[in-house]
């Protein structure tokens, strides 16, 4: 059974096509990730699915409700956490939560069970105003507020953007435990390394979906031989490798460069080439492609025009 | 209903926690009223007056002596005929003329109502009011102090203002301040707080909740309705008790009219907020389309009659013009229902117009 | 000469110690990664080094100038770029470059040369007279970096320059950083992408206002026995997360 069905949906703002002909499905109880950089159309897509925007074209069904026809019913069944912190800064943690609980016709006590694991972490500060909280705590409060009415489907728009790596990890742990309670979660993120934490992902760029699959299967789309290469002078290494005839693409990946080849050659062939260019401390190893390799490959293949 | 109450409660939290809002809400009316009040009580010592004593009796001399010994007045000139009054005023030195008619003592001692006329230069309205008030009080105290010896006596103090007979400004400023504050609090604050929710992104979250548009709008409006009403009452109380402005008409009618005007101001506020997503624009729009026209075109500062024809026409669409007139009519002239019916109707029509527009612009979706 | 020297640099806001006696040095031409959890005090430290905030105590020099007495000199010798504000969206690309050239007092001929240079390097010649708002985020950031480098500053402060930028543009951005560093500009950069921490020559990690670790990425990984900078960060910064 699908919790979300998006069928050929499009939305433009004036001349800018924010989302064009997007289709995908999210299964019930799935943790589904929408991965893509700023401007990929993730937020617009989210706003349509939570009934804030009407699509120009196409249709979508969330929790068996049409996002246009049944938007009023749907609104009580989804939890939505916008990308920007959207709580009342001048209300305390408790007042914010209480407000949203009452607005949805429930109370903190009634659904305490669902938010308990998250809420206990911020409860000691419940009389503190939301505006004075740290980034990580704001995020937890926002998640509590989005959960307080026990939604069937949870929409989290870039919950981890601008958040440090530690808080990000904690946040994903929370999502995992929510998923275990049977909640369907659609989450968007610009961080490719978070893709692996989802059941399935859609890669998005320029308003289009490039691929939808499990993280493991998506990496299978990447067919070229891939090596990780390191040497003493990184910047010169990039230049030299890009000029090599065997190179398809070469990008920095952490301390290594990822070198995708046009055709199969051995690591010693690469080493010979680099040695001839006076590189020292050369380290080359064969690696499996990750989501980010795959994403970059897909963008350059489709060469989605930069929207302007 | 519980949802709605939660919303109203939240709104009160916002207001009470924002010092700036509180300052505007409660500081402004006080400052405005006290400012005018200060100007009113200023400058009244040894004011030059002229006396036209046609009776020249014991009583008139005693009353004159009392006036002079009060310290508020000094005689600049004794006049001998009515014709001189106008000439003396035109010299610009004297502020007030006290006129005793020929039969003053006769009327006074025969149990009739004796007449004294006080004529004041109302080009400085505030001073004029104070001086006539002081003079009347002193004259009345004379009757009571002498009353012990002779049978009941009455003096009717008949004041007349020259140069500015209706005392525009002085009596208008309280209705004017009230209008301004109500507009500011009701319209500007509502439009700004709605825009703030849009700017902060909280409006999105509210849209996705089961709260209806009407609950959101009314929840925004009601706290400000209450605050505005309290504010209006505070201004009235300050005006009547501190500045001794008359309250000649029906209080209930006045309060109802005040509510109507607040309702209109709120509907304008909601209308403005339906046009913009930014607090800054909302603030600016409120200033341009309400505050400035209210100050300059409503008759608050400049009398409408002395405006160029074009501006006079424009002043007809300024809601404050009607409200100021209504308040003035009820408070000062003490006229009732019928006299203010037309102005009331205009205000009601304007309110309906803006509410209608707002409903048309009301959205349950973004963009 | 060192590009940045701090000695027990401290900033207090009331009772709260945002930056607590941090001491470090940054070499000329170094790419220095300045990491830390949200609220660890990075922004405060950066603001002091840029001459925007007066320290409560301690010493610091940036490009050889004192942060207490020579803030104007500092501002002339550094470049600054943040994720949030950098360029005027309602000016064209060309106007933005010329504007910044102007406020740094470059000569008109220089400004024209540099404008042409930047437009060519970023391949923006065809859209030079389009509004900056119309550029995709990644391009805006590359442009902002070029503009921050316009007056050839000795030190450039980059505050989360690549947040939300697509992976390819992000890498192109880092290549620009490498290039600038290879020409002797010191780069002082914050990021939440842990793979980017690996691109730095040295990395410091701030926790609760203090510098908890400072070393090369390799040295840090060896010290904490993990295979990625993410691992290092998870170990060090964990303490603050529940704050």
From TrEMBL, chain A:
Gene3D superfamilies: P-loop containing nucleotide triphosphate hydrolases (3.40.50.300). This is ABC transporter ATP-binding protein. InterPro entries: AAA+_ATPase, ABC_transporter-like_ATP-bd, ABC_transporter-like_CS, P-loop_NTPase. Keywords: ATP-binding, Nucleotide-binding. The keyword Nucleotide-binding applies. It comes from the Bacteria. PANTHER family: ABC-TYPE MULTIDRUG TRANSPORT SYSTEM, ATPASE COMPONENT, ATP-BINDING CASSETTE, SUB-FAMILY H, MEMBER 1. It comes from Xanthocytophaga flava. It holds the Pfam family ABC_tran. One of its GO terms (molecular function) is ATP hydrolysis activity. Residues 4-231 form the ABC transporter domain. The keyword Nucleotide-binding applies.
TrEMBL record, chain B:
One of its GO terms (molecular function) is ABC-type transporter activity. InterPro entries: ABC-2_transporter_component, ABC2_TM, ABC2_TM_bact-type, ABC_2_transport. GO terms for cellular component: ATP-binding cassette (ABC) transporter complex. Its main location: membrane. Residues 139-365 form the ABC transmembrane type-2 domain. Keywords: Cell membrane, Membrane, Transmembrane, Transmembrane helix, Transport. Gene3D superfamilies: abc type-2 transporter like domain. It is found in: Cell membrane. It is a multi-pass membrane protein. The chain crosses the membrane at residues 21-40, 170-194, 221-243, 249-273, 280-304, 339-359. Belongs to the ABC-2 integral membrane protein family. This is Transport permease protein. It comes from Xanthocytophaga flava.
Automatic annotation (TrEMBL), chain C:
One of its GO terms (molecular function) is ATP hydrolysis activity. Residues 4-233 form the ABC transporter domain. Keywords: ATP-binding, Nucleotide-binding. It comes from the Bacteria. CDD domains: ABC_DR_subfamily_A. SMART domains: AAA (SM00382). The keyword Nucleotide-binding applies. PANTHER family: ABC TRANSPORTER G FAMILY MEMBER 20 ISOFORM X1, ATP-BINDING CASSETTE, SUB-FAMILY H, MEMBER 1. This is ABC transporter ATP-binding protein. It comes from Xanthocytophaga flava.
């Amino acid at each position: 059974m699908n919790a979300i069905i998006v069928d050929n949906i499009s939305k433009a703002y004036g001349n800018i096509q924010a989302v064009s002909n997007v289709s995908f499905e999210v299964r019930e109880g799935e943790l589904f990730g929408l991965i893509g950089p700023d401007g990929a159309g993730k937020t617009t897509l989210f706003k349509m699915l939570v009934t804030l925007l009407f699509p120009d074209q196409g249709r979508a069904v969330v929790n068996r409700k049409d996002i246009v026809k049944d938007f009023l019913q749907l609104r009580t069944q989804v939890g939505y956490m916008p990308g920007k912190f959207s709580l009342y800064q001048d209300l305390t943690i408790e007042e914010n939560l209480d407000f949203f609980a009452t607005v949805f016709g429930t109370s903190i006590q009634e659904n305490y069970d669902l938010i308990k694991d998250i809420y206990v972490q911020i409860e000691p500060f419940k009389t503190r105003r939301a505006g004075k909280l740290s980034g990580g705590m704001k995020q937890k409060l926002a998640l509590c507020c989005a959960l307080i009415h026990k939604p069937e489907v949870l929409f989290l728009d870039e919950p981890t953007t601008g958040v440090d790596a530690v808080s990000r990890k904690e946040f994903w742990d929370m999502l995992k435990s929510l998923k275990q309670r049977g909640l369907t979660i659609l989450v968007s993120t610009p961080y490719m390394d978070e893709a692996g934490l989802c059941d399935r992902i859609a890669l998005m760029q320029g308003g289009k979906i490039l691929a939808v699959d499990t993280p493991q299967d998506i990496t299978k789309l990447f067919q070229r031989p891939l090596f990780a290469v390191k040497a003493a002078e990184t910047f010169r290494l990039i230049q030299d490798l890009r000029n090599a005839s065997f190179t398809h693409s070469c990008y920095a990946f952490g301390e290594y460069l990822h070198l995708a080849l046009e055709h199969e050659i051995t690591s010693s062939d690469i080493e010979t080439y680099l040695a001839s260019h006076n590189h020292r401390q050369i380290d080359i190893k064969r690696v499996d492609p990750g989501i980010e390799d795959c994403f970059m490959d897909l963008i350059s293949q489709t060469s989605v025009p930069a929207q302007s | 209903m519980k949802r709605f109450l939660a919303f109203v409660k939240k709104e009160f939290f916002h207001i009470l926690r924002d010092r700036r809002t509180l300052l505007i809400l409660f500081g402004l009316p006080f400052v405005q009223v006290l400012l005018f009040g200060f100007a009113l009580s200023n400058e009244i010592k040894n004011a030059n007056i002229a006396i036209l004593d046609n009776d020249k009796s014991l009583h008139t001399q005693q009353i004159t002596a009392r006036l002079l010994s009060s310290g508020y007045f000094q005689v600049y000139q004794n006049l001998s005929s009515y014709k001189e009054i106008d000439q003396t005023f035109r010299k610009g030195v004297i502020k007030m003329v006290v006129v005793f008619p020929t039969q003053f003592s006769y009327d006074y001692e025969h149990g009739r109502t004796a007449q004294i006329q006080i004529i004041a230069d109302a080009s400085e309205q505030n001073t004029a009011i104070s001086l006539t008030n002081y003079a009347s009080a002193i004259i009345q105290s004379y009757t009571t102090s002498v009353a012990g010896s002779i049978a009941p006596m009455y003096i009717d103090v008949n004041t007349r203002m020259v140069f500015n007979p209706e005392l525009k400004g002085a009596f208008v400023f309280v209705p004017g301040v009230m209008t301004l504050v109500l507009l500011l609090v009701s319209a500007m604050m509502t439009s700004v707080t709605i825009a703030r929710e849009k700017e902060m992104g909280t409006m999105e979250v509210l849209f996705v909740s089961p709260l209806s548009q009407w609950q959101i709008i009314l929840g925004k409006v009601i706290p400000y309705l209450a605050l505005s009403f309290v504010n209006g009452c505070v201004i009235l109380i300050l005006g009547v008790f501190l500045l001794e402005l008359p309250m000649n008409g029906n209080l209930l009618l006045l309060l109802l009219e005040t509510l109507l005007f607040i309702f209109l101001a709120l509907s304008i506020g909601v209308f403005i907020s339906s046009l913009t997503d930014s607090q800054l624009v909302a603030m600016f729009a409120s200033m341009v389309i309400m505050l400035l026209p209210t100050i300059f075109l409503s008759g608050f500062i400049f009398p409408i009659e002395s405006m160029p024809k074009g501006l006079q026409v424009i002043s007809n669409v300024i809601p404050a013009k009607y409200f100021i007139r209504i308040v003035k009519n009820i408070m000062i002239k003490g006229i009732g229902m019928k006299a203010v019916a037309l102005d009331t109707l205009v205000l009601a029509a304007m309110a309906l117009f803006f509410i209608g527009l707002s409903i048309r612009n009301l959205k349950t979706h973004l963009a | 000469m060192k590009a940045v020297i701090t000695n027990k640099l401290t900033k207090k806001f009331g009772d709260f110690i945002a930056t607590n006696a941090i001491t470090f040095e940054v070499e000329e031409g170094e790419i220095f990664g300045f990491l830390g959890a949200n609220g660890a005090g990075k922004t405060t430290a950066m603001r002091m080094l840029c001459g925007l905030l007066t320290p409560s105590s301690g010493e610091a020099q940036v490009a050889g100038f004192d942060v207490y007495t020579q803030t104007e000199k500092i501002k002339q010798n550094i470049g600054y770029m943040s994720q949030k504000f950098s360029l005027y969206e309602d000016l064209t690309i060309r106007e933005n470059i010329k504007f910044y050239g102007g406020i740094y007092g470059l000569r008109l001929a220089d400004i024209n040369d540099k404008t042409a240079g930047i437009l060519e390097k970023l391949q923006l010649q065809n859209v030079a007279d389009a509004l900056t708002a119309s550029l995709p985020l990644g391009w805006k950031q590359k442009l902002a970096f070029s503009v921050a480098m316009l007056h050839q500053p000795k030190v450039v402060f980059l505050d989360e320059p690549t947040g939300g930028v697509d992976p390819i543009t992000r890498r192109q951005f880092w290549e620009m950083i490498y290039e600038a560093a290879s020409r002797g500009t010191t780069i002082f950069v914050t990021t939440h992408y842990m793979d980017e921490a690996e691109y730095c020559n040295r990395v410091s990690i701030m926790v609760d206002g203090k510098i908890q670790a400072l070393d090369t990425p390799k040295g840090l990984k060896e010290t904490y026995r993990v295979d990625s900078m993410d691992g290092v960060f998870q170990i060090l910064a964990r303490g603050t997360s529940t704050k």
